[in-house]
Amino acid sequence: MSEAVSRPTLEAVAARAGVSRATASRVVNGGDGVREPLVERVRQAVAELGYVPNQAARSLVTRRHDAVAVVIAEPETRIFTDPFFALQLRGISKELTAHDNQLVLLLTEGRDDHARVARYLAGGHVDGALVFSLHLDDPLPGLIEGAKIPTVFGGRPGWSDGSKDAVYVDCDNRGGARDAVRHLAGLGRTRIAHITGPLDQTSAADRLDGYRDVMGEADPRLIVPSDFTPAGGERAMAELLDRCPDVDAVFAANDLTALGALRVLRERGRRVPEDVAVVGFDDVLPVTEQTGPSLTTVRQDIEEMGRLMARLLLSTLTRSGSAPAPSSVVLPTTLVRRASA
Fold first, then answer.
1. Whole-model pTM above 0.85?
2. Is residue 82's pLDDT more than 50?
């Protein structure tokens, strides 16, 4: 059996650089008060020896773990099939990696997982949390508040009405929905339906509000609830055609919903956009490229939203006591016109 290769120590780095252990420690852990020539000598010694700091020991000095939890309040089946989550995670990962932080992904398959996630967050393993896809009755915000770690939310939390502080990143869901419905109305469509997302999420509720802003007191039969999935879009479109066969346009709450709606329209012999015009929401290219015809949709910059979430959290972790706390960000949306409407 070969002998284990010993790891270089901080003492070895200090000896190679010709400095004290305390000086080497300050440089390795990002401390101040070390002259630049000494900093360069320590860094050169680290590179030559291949020294890797002991994270546990480093955490005792810096009180930082350089790790951030990403908590997604959805079952795995949705997370790994909906490209929205992949884009948001990519943005988060890029920003954390650029600042030498680790991403720790925590999933909540069911309510039994919430206590486990709360214990982990309260256990001092991470510096903060990024949380998204919350539902209105979700206990996660309260549990995370109990963990007393900095948190940034993806999407406006349902309770963020000024009665409770919350930092979040979202897009202009209501304004984007208005643009979608106005576009359909501008095409001369008069029976414009809306297939919603899950209305216990603020993004879906805001998009429904945007639809109503334009349509006013529309025929309630033209509003069909769904769940942001292709299967949900299929069910809702079939129900819509059965009860309102004269529908001539559909605003779907997201692109996956629109994908399901388009399948049913093809099966029922409805031409798009000649008979029924369709607009989605998100502009997730893997989905819009699957549709036939290509999907007109409302674009939100999902990857940038992930980057901003991570950036806001990191700024919270590094700000001084006198610096202002970061504010929530709402990004604009853009209507992307293609062949479906």
1. no
2. yes
